[in-house]
Amino acid sequence: MAASGDRSGTPLTRIKAALDDLPGWLSAQDDASLGEPLIEIRAVIDRSESVFADGVRRFDKSGEYKADGSLSLTEWLRWRCKLSGGAAAERVEVARQLEKLPRTGAAFATGDVGYQHVVLIARAAQNVGTAPVQKEEHSLLKAALTMDPGRFAAVAKGFEHRVDAAAALGEANRAYERRYLHLSEPQNGMVRLDGILDLEGGATLKTAVSALMPPPTNGDPRTPGQRRVDALVDLARRPLDGSKLGSVGGQRPHLVITATAETLLGLKGAPPAEMRRTDTDGGSTAARVRSQRELAAWPGRARERECQPRPPPDPGSHPQGAGRPRSQLRLQRLSPAGDLVRWPPPRLVDARGQDGAAQPGTRL
User: Pseudo-torsion of CA 95, 98, 100, 105, nearest 10°?
Assistant: First the structure.
């Protein structure tokens, strides 16, 4: 076994003693005044993760984990530190990346950013390389200081896409390959459901389930989780009964995917498309048209695949899209890049006063 050393009188001993006193002190606080203590406890946990990361980095280099019979540091962390495989691997990667990201490490040590912020920055460095992250480290940290990890994740993904769209696509496809759904056999009168969905699939399911969850009434005793599972069962039952998904406020629930012209044209450095769930189309008159190739420029499932081009509609026979055949508006699937563009393409006037269709690379 790896030598642990004598820790009597060490900071760890004092921390453990303080933790022994903490529950009693916290229970004596007024419930309404617990906000600040909870914030401070969370800050202590994040700063402890910073110290832990520094120790993991040094222990990794020493190779001493092998003395306990472990083949890797990740395996050792799972065994000795009671972590799951994913949590152990994540901390090893964070420790390794922080050595090359001193600004992030310093902000982590002082508690200016939390552990989840650091994970996102380290993952970006793993996906696109350390050099681009070092170059934009100040901007990333500035965003992390003002955002919760959920919002900052979109910033980190957008950064990855601008730096290396191919790497972002690879990471998205790896995430997509982890999808699964498991339904257990009935046990004690219940069936357990467990699974992971990719971003697009999760948003689609959430949109459909939400459409079947009207606002709760005063006489509804169900919990939010019970209402959600009832809606999911209702969603599955409808095709069996020949029913269709209803509408919300007179509109069919759907997803909205927005993208810049640069993203639609596949230009280098373009930001990723963004997807959000909505119950109305917000008055948008944009038509979804089929592209020659589905763009793979978004944080989520984004597989490039060749599509058969659809003949363009005749603007003369269908002015402003009225009466346009439904098949010409429907995508082969909801394209990650959105393809939310006008049809026909806008006409541009050049310096000589001549007009022409928008060309790749043109800012619309």
Answer: -150
Query: Could you give the CA distance from residue 56 to residue 94 in angstroms, rounded to a whole number?
Result: 9
179 and 201 Cβ atoms separated by less than 8 Å: yes
Tokens of 63: 């190779």
Q: State the pairing for strand pair 180-183/193-196.
A: antiparallel
In Å, what is the CA distance from 175 to each residue of 168, 171, 302? 11, 6, 10
pLDDT, tens digit, for every residue of 292-327? Answer: 333 333 343 333 333 334 444 444 444 443 443 333
What's the pLDDT score for residue 310? Answer: 42
CA gap 62, 78 in Å, rounded: 18
Tokens 């055949």 found at: 325
Could you give the CA distance from residue 290 to residue 270 in angstroms, rounded to a whole number? 20
Q: Which of 116, 118, 96 is nearest to 106 (CA)?
A: 118
Sign of CA dihedral 243, 249, 250, 251: negative
Residue 140 CA to residue 138 CA, distance in Å, equals: 6
Report how far apart, in Å, the C-alpha atoms of 325 and of each of 146, 204, 292 are. 47, 25, 19
Q: Which residues pair with residue 182 across a beta bridge? A: 194
Both tokens assigned to 107: 């902000």
Rounded alpha-carbon distances, angstroms, from residue 227 to 84, 193, 357: 31, 15, 51
CA 13/CA 130 separation, integer angstroms: 36
Q: Is the pLDDT of residue 4 over 70?
A: no
357: exposed, middle or buried (Cβ count in 10 Å: 0-12, 13-18, 19+)? exposed
